[in-house]
Fold:
Amino acid sequence: MLWSALLIPVLFLEWSMAAPLLSQTKPGCPDRCGNISIPYPFGLGDDPSCFREETSTFQLYCNDSYNPPRLFNTGDDSTPIINITLQGQATFLIWPATYCFYSNGSLTDDSFNVILKMREGYRFSYTRNKFTAIGCDTSAFMSDASGLNFQSGCYSFCKSISNVLNGSCSGIGCCQTAIPKDVRILNLTQDNRYSQNFSYTSNPCRYAFLVDNDWFTFYVSDLWNFSKRVEYKINNIVALPVAMDWAIRDLTCEEAKRNRSSYACMQHAGCIDSSNGPGYLCRCDKGYEGNPYLENGCQGPIFGTLFLLIVSSWIYWVFQKRKLIRLKDDFFLQNGGMLLQQHLTSCERSAEIIKIFTSEELRKATDNYHESHILGRGGYGTVYKDVVVKEGDLDQIQEVANLAKRCLRLSGEERPSMKEVAMELEGLRLSEKHAWIEQNLEETEHLLVESPGSFDYSNAGYETITTKVNIGR
Ligand SMILES: *[C@@H]1O[C@H](CO)[C@@H](O)[C@H](O)[C@H]1NC(C)=O
Ligand SMILES: *[C@@H]1O[C@H](CO)[C@@H](O)[C@H](O)[C@H]1NC(C)=O
Ligand SMILES: *[C@@H]1O[C@H](CO)[C@@H](O)[C@H](O)[C@H]1NC(C)=O
Ligand SMILES: *[C@@H]1O[C@H](CO)[C@@H](O)[C@H](O)[C@H]1NC(C)=O
Ligand SMILES: *[C@@H]1O[C@H](CO)[C@@H](O)[C@H](O)[C@H]1NC(C)=O
Ligand SMILES: *[C@@H]1O[C@H](CO)[C@@H](O)[C@H](O)[C@H]1NC(C)=O
Ligand SMILES: *[C@@H]1O[C@H](CO)[C@@H](O)[C@H](O)[C@H]1NC(C)=O
Ligand SMILES: *[C@@H]1O[C@H](CO)[C@@H](O)[C@H](O)[C@H]1NC(C)=O
Ligand SMILES: *[C@@H]1O[C@H](CO)[C@@H](O)[C@H](O)[C@H]1NC(C)=O
Structure:
């Protein structure tokens, strides 16, 4: 019970935390492509109410002809998106600039040069991505679209494969360099002037690419087997995950707030200026969770938790109550209570001899099961007395006392069942005039309280059946 009482709130809590995740998309719009969830301001399809329209950044489409389906910006079919977060990041798969030899030494017609041109809302993450080149005798360059604002690159050399180390991308077989802030278009190229003399088997291909460095680790085998190690492919050509920063461009928070109709942040949401290029992002206020770009998207989890606590404690209470009632009934039936009751109602005077007590009456009669009221203890129960008889037929009293003793026996087989007790009492009643019964103003009660095993049900209030007989001292 305790277990399920704990489980229920946990399940509810999980549900309440999952709920905002599930409803991150605009209501009525497709919310995922394969297993990639699409949070608003991103949206799938042609319905302009499903995504934020201002730039072509947020309109996506899902190409189901791939398995699993692939997500793209509308109008693009070469750079799939593999994840999007509300914290302003998205991961794209992008081809490297590649340059390979055939075994006879001539060059394949691979692309020495790759131009990466992202939609207006994106910038290459300068914190997560590194410009990377793999190869022996590889010189790789990058520049902005015009090549006028910045140019950078790295050179990788290896005299022998034995000099190359796993995990070390610092100039021997692999090189890396950082990229600047606020870049949306990159021109990646390789220069083949120096690199036509290396062994085909050790290093048939050279690569230059941008990559999410949290994902990338260099292995020596990349020199001859790179495309086989990388899990991502586009049309069977290796592709690399690139981290993009997205934002609502191009106004700052302060500027954007002036125009309420175009301001992206909704109730209980704050605004944060983009750290990569002009623009801003929205965040739910402290204590709120969900999608800050959606109407009523930010929900207070504190309220939810309180509500859940109330609901789950109520459920717990109901369960406990029902269990108690069920237990009482079970014990009553188990001990032949029905039989006894039937038997009693069948003879008019029996009420004076035998009576079934409620646990309340019992508690009162035994002074809350006080030690001094205990007549004896058996393996399965304890016999209590309540009031002492004045006079009575000693033989009968003796018989009843013997019966009580038998009731206290440890072994279940030797102990009489309730049915037997009822019958014996009935026998006693019929065999005598039982003047003593009628005369006795006071009665002694002989109460058998069920307490199986070590569990003390008497304290828990589960007492069910008692027989009341006259007994002398
Ligand atoms: C989507 O599914 C692929 C495999 O089918 C798995 O590698 C990837 O982790 C999943 N992504 C998410 C966000 O669940
Ligand atoms: C989806 O992918 C298939 C196969 O790659 C391609 O032929 C098709 O043009 C794509 N669909 C769209 C709408 O671009
Ligand atoms: C080298 O091999 C490729 C493919 O097998 C072939 O197209 C090319 O003509 C060959 N080059 C020379 C110089 O033999
Ligand atoms: C590099 O790592 C691979 C895979 O873990 C391993 O098989 C190989 O022996 C390592 N090579 C060197 C030079 O450490
Ligand atoms: C890309 O850069 C290379 C070398 O820097 C240059 O030759 C080429 O013209 C550039 N391409 C574009 C489209 O700017
Ligand atoms: C190419 O390799 C050959 C033999 O291995 C060597 O003689 C030649 O100097 C090398 N050329 C360059 C440019 O490294
Ligand atoms: C997105 O995918 C990349 C590449 O698999 C992974 O490194 C990154 O952790 C993912 N980001 C999120 C938020 O799932
Ligand atoms: C390339 O990698 C695959 C496994 O990914 C392996 O079976 C194969 O032998 C490797 N090829 C070379 C030339 O090392
Ligand atoms: C506010 O934004 C709306 C929607 O983008 C635009 O039509 C309107 O011109 C803007 N108003 C001002 C004063 O900039």
Summary: The longest helix spans residues 301-334. The chain has three domains: 26-77, 89-246, 335-460. Residues 89-246 form one domain.
